[in-house]
Amino acid sequence: MISSLKGKLWLTYCAWFRPPLEQKLREDFSASLPPWSELGVEVADFLASTGQSNVPMRELYLLVRGLKPEIVVETGVARGGSTATILAAMDKNQKGELHSIDATKLRDPKENDGYNTDMIGSIMRIRQHSRWHFHEGFSYDVLPALIRKFSASGQKVSLFIHDSDHSAKCVQFELFAISPAIASGGFVASHDAFCFDNKPAFRAFERQQQDYRIYFEGKGNEYRIYRKR
After folding, report:
1. pLDDT tens across 174-215, in order?
2. In the chain, which residue ranges form alpha helices assigned H by DSSP?
3. What's the pLDDT score for residue 197?
4. What is the pLDDT of residues 63-85, one digit of tens each?
5. Is residue 216 classed as helix, strand or coil in its secondary structure?
6. 20 to 30 Å CA-CA from 196: which of 1, 38, 41, 184?
7. Domains in the chain, CATH or no CATH each
8. Which sign, positive or negative, has the C-alpha torsion 144, 146, 147, 149?
9. What order do you get walking across the sheet with 97-102 strand by strand?
10. What is the β-pairing status of strands 182-190 and 157-162?
11. What is the rounded CA–CA span in Å between residue 109 and residue 139?
12. Of 70, 164, 85, whose CA–CA distance to 126 is shortest?
């Protein structure tokens, strides 16, 4: 049941506009995704409740719904849009754990007006969500320790999302650090892939990581996604 005019308008929009990544996901995960009529209501309700209305968030939701990951790691939380998106999809899947890394201390959303992107998690309405694990610190420090923890317990990461420092140095560090921890068939994604000068990092990753292939190349603030063979 869609409870707002915004949700109804979004559902109408979704019915006729299918971005390229969504089309690919629906082809690859057709058996895992519910019919569009049902999925459209899920997306509309969620986006209306959180204020997320851009295409990358919608595609991220669909990716998590189709992949049904056990473990997802993201770097960069900001206002919590992607965090809330992933958790909403995990709730529908009834499985999954999300580990989020950010250098900024998690704040109470009541402490700000919801528009200051420096206030981490300001739109989060699920801060006590049982599937969510927040790790404060820089990815250079936190990510290797988290990977060692997964390795010690025999766990693999199904989906990794870079959305922190978009410098080539940081992007390259995160992609190479997470690479061995990704499960076969898993995904490595970088948001805002073409908004910053991080192409050298992608070229280095593609040249040296032969187990990965380019799954999707977006434009502007969309995702660049690799999939592990």
Report:
1. 999 999 999 999 999 998 887 778 889 999 999 999 999 999
2. 5-16, 20-28, 36-50, 55-67, 81-93, 139-152, 168-178, 199-208
3. 80
4. 999 999 999 999 998 877 788 88
5. strand
6. 184
7. 53-228 (3.40.50.150)
8. positive
9. 132-136, 97-102, 71-75, 157-162, 182-190, 224-228, 212-217
10. parallel
11. 23
12. 85
Dump pLDDT digits (tens) for 142-168.
999 999 999 999 999 999 999 999 999
Q: Which two tokens stand for residue 105?
A: 């201390």
At 100 the three-state DSSP class reads strand
Query: Pairing between strand 157-162 and 132-136?
Result: unpaired
Rg (CA), the chain: 17
Q: Are strands 97-102 and 132-136 parallel, antiparallel or unpaired?
A: parallel
Question: What integer pLDDT is reported at residue 179 of this predicted model?
Answer: 98
Q: Give the position of tokens 């592990």.
A: 228
* Contacts of residue 99, Cβ cutoff 8 Å, sequence gap at least 6: 71, 72, 73, 74, 133, 135, 146
What phi and psi, each to the nearest 5 degrees, are found at residue 212?
-115, 145
- Per the listing, tokens 């995160």 go with 174
Instruction: Write down the residue that tokens 């994604």 correspond to.
Output: 189
Q: What are the pLDDT digits (tens) for 118-145? A: 456 655 555 668 999 999 999 999 999 9
In sequence order, the β-bridge partners of residue 91 are none
Cα separation, 140 vs 167, whole angstroms: 13
Name the pTM for this structure.
0.85
Q: What is the pLDDT of residue 187?
A: 98
Two tokens at 5? 């005019």
Q: At which residue do the structure tokens 């007006």 appear? A: 113
